[in-house]
Amino acid sequence: MRVVRSLSLDIHLNLAIENNLFLDSPEGERCLFLWRNSRSVVIGRYQNPWLECALGALRDDGVVLARRQSGGGAVWHDEGNLCFTFMGPRAGFSRDDNIALVAAALRDLGADASVNDRRDIMVGGRKVSGSAYREAAGRAFHHGTLLVEADLHALSRYLKSSVPLLSSRGVKSVRSPVANIRDTAPDADAAAIRAAIARRWAPGAAVESVGEEEAMENAGIAAFRARSASRDWVLGSSPPFVRLLEFEIEADAGKRETIALEAHVEGGRIAQAKPARDGVGSAPGRVTAEAAEALRGADYENTAMAAAAGGRAKQALERGDEPLARALESLARAAASIDL
Taken in order 118, 124, 126, 127, is the CA torsion positive or negative? Predict the structure, then answer.
């Protein structure tokens, strides 16, 4: 039985190392992977980040958004977290045994840890760990996070969305009151918990460490990291949803009008945009129709939508349609700042 520790704090690289250990290990090998990340939000395989996260705040604050291969809900990671992954043959693999081992390791360090029926670890009635599961090629892994001394204010700030969607598919997170382990067990820092879990998993086993440079020399790990960090994976894998977009624009003679569109988003792009139902929006029908056509096919992001509207405005100006061009230029400015 192996115990492997990552020295990297790069969420995308750690997910790549995890994947490599999971799929490229010798048949029958069981492995415990222990890792930490810098500030990031990690969503489940089937989640909609626009529904789960404050994406604008993540972007403004330089927080990384990642999507993992397993299901489950959105979680906050920082250096005050410790992540664990149990891996092995699917036959005989037990999530209950894994999570019981982690809870026992926490109790070894003085934390009053228990496991609820969702396999969450609780301390003092509050959640300190959630986990998720994946199977592939006859193997299974079970990974989770431990809130050791995480920034819970950041967790509250980023794991929410104020954006109303008309409809959305995908798995929604189950919110629970959370706490840090060190709030009640001050000796249970990340290093102590890591050692306690390793002792219970494989007493006496040497801990293998893997650094960033060594990991990136593996072509499979490097390729998986690039995929993990790509827009196509992080945002493009999102389930379809519909959002009402309302843009306040400046029309002729300084008059303010509202363009209201239903944006049908698939794969992180606006597959279709159409005028909203009657009674929503005040812009002339011609302007609204042009706006819908401008945004169709654009990435569902501020810069891409603004560029699409600006390109349409340029075309209108080349045709000599100055009123429409002004309206679309105003749309471009509104698209650059709308809360997505």
Answer: negative
**What is the pTM assigned to this prediction?**
0.92
Cα-Cα-Cα-Cα dihedral sign, residues 188, 191, 64, 66 = negative
Taking phi over 0 as left and psi of -120 to 50 as alpha, with beta for the rest, 296 belongs to beta
Please name the residue that has the structure tokens 């929503």: 280
Separation CA 240–CA 67 (nearest Å): 16
pLDDT level of residue 193 (50, 70, 90 thresholds): very high
Per-residue pLDDT at 106: 98
Q: Which residues contact 42 (CB under 8 A, 6 or more apart)?
A: 11, 66, 67, 68, 74, 75, 77
Fold that domain 2-234 belongs to in CATH: BirA Bifunctional Protein; domain 2 (3.30.930)
Q: Does residue 195 surpass a pLDDT of 90?
A: yes
Tokens in use for 98?
Answer: 């894994």
Please check whether residue 154 is in contact with residue 61, taking contact to mean a CB–CB distance below 8 angstroms.
no
Q: Pick from 265, 338, 330: which is nearest to 300 by CA? A: 265
Tens digits of residue pLDDT in 52-99: 999 989 999 999 999 999 999 999 999 999 999 999 999 999 999 999
Ranges of CATH 3.30.930.10 domains, the chain: 2-234
Kindly report, residue by residue over 114-168, the tens digit of the pLDDT: 999 999 999 999 999 999 999 998 999 999 999 999 999 999 999 998 777 777 7
Q: Which CATH superfamily is domain 241-337 in?
A: CO dehydrogenase flavoprotein, C-terminal domain (3.30.390.50)
Termini Cα distance of the chain: 46
Residue in the structure block whose two tokens are 């501020």: 302
Structure tokens at 209: 């460490």
163 closest CA partner among 61, 266, 53:
53
CB atoms within 10 A of CB 163: 15
